[in-house]
Amino acid sequence: MCRLLGVSKSGYYDWEKRPMSATEQRREDLKPLIDFVFTESGRTYGYRRVHAELRRAGVEVDDELVRKLMRQMGLVPVQVKRRRGLTIADKTAAPIPDLVRRDFSADRPGQKMIGDITQIDTGEGALFLATVIDCFSKSVIGWALDVRYPASLVCAAIDMAAARIEMPDGAIFHSDRGSQYTSIEFGETLGEYDIRQSVGR
């Protein structure tokens, strides 16, 4: 290699052992942060959303640098396709009130949360992502991924959300009337965290 590059062996080894520049160190420090945000999103965030989350967390970084580093790290967001009919209403479920009534404003974290299930198409088949979004921060605070979408999937997403933030008194979780959300299992999970359940019409 040294002969091809036209440099001496000692010169090559000196170059190889040189300390990182401040710029290089900065990029290395950013990589685990980028990887964390990307992974927390369920591998769905592109560089713009990763950049936005980093800025929200107080990390000063240019979006173009995030794009370059994600490319170097091989972080490619999976293609998300929303499919209607993932949640089917259970007509035998007990009635649950709509506590939100289209007012999704919130004064503090955990006051109001909304849930959804999204189908993600991959080269190896479909995955199903259940998310919990905090209406105050507008960010995902809980998620769960599986090849199926039973009630346990949305329960796992709530478990993560409750582990990440302290639920205030009177916390509300709002969703559609899908059977996963109106199931006894999910209702009991919300009860464990003293979260009030709300469903849309």
Structure, described:
- The chain has 201 residues and is of the alpha/beta class.
- The protein contains eight helices and five strands; from the N terminus they run αααααβββαβααβ.
- A hairpin with a 2-residue loop joins strand 1 and strand 2.
- The model has no long low-confidence stretch (mean pLDDT 83).
- This is IS3 family transposase.
- It holds the Pfam family HTH_21.
- It comes from Nonomuraea phyllanthi.
- GO terms for molecular function: nucleic acid binding.
Question: What are the key terms here?
Answer:
201 residues; alpha/beta; 2 domains; 8 helices; 5 strands
Rounded to an integer, what's the Rg over CA atoms? Answer: 22 Å
| Name of the CATH homologous superfamily of the largest domain | Ribonuclease H-like superfamily/Ribonuclease H
Q: What is the helix tally?
A: 8
**Shape verdict:** elongated
Could you tell me the strand content as a percent range? 15-25%
Distance between the termini: 69 Å
- Counting structural domains, the number is 2
Q: Per CATH, what is the topology of the largest domain?
A: Nucleotidyltransferase, domain 5
**CATH class category label of the largest domain:** Alpha Beta
Q: How do the helices and strands follow one another from N- to C-terminus?
A: HHHHHEEEHEHHE
Mean pLDDT: 83
InterPro entries: HTH-like_dom, Integrase_cat-core, RNaseH-like_sf, RNaseH_sf, Transpos_IS3, Transposase_IS3/IS150/IS904
Function: Involved in the transposition of the insertion sequence.
Protein name: IS3 family transposase
Pfam family, one: rve
